[in-house]
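Hi C.,

You asked whether I'd gotten around to modeling the 269-residue construct. I have! Everything is below, sequence then structure, no commentary in between.
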Amino acid sequence: MTDGETPRPDIPDAVVDLIRGADWITVFSGAGMSAESGIATFRDAQAGGRSQAALWDRFDPAELATPEAWDRDPALVWGWYRWRAGHVRTAQPNAGHHALADLGANRTVMVVTQNVDDLHERAGSDVISHLHGSLFAPRCSVCGTPYEGVDALPDDRPRDDSTFDPRVPPPTCRRCGGSVRPGVVWFGEALPESDWQRADQAFRASEAIIVVGTSGIVYPAAALPERAVRAGIPVIEFNPAPSALSEVATHSLRLSAAQGLPALLRALD
């Protein structure tokens, strides 16, 4: 290391040995996984975090991400999610995303994510389960048919934030004529059954679990790593701050995704 260079974090030998010996690994990622790509965590957004555009500061994300908000003002909810999709499209996968894709080059790495962005996929990972849905998978609010069309693309209209109308009427389903809704799981909604089953199977089949950037307080998703620990499957957490999973994890490292995952890859090499 030269003068002024940031020290590289050390990964404990026990963690390196666990990952080196595992041919099947499940990665469980939360909002902290994408934070270093400039995607605000939900708590940051509620607090007016660094990634919130001034246009949306007066809206509470927790109030927009509900079935009740959709019933009350679908154009406002659709406009907000189009803005979010546009924000994600301008972001890039960080070093942590790329490290996970590289980790899967010589072993099976199954990514289960709570994130609604597509940064894992753009880095080259195979995401087997989007537990909370995806910004890029809108569907009919009536019949559930997936929707693809220019109306579903991220919002890139020119704007003056002082006069810009955030409301965008949602497109119409070509099958039944219903309104197309964002393809995410809102507060109060059940997780998609198929995604839950794939996540459950991935956790049960794994020889090691890597948990990255999740608070561990959102159920039922948080139950997956807890159950893995009880089944004797090692769980390794990367999180710069303690989480609800830290006390039960086999190893809990105070490192962010972009710090810890490349360091793990270097240690394996």
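If it helps when you're writing up: Strands lie at 24-29, 108-113, 127-130, 139-140, 180-181, 208-212, 235-238, 251-253.

Thanks,
B.
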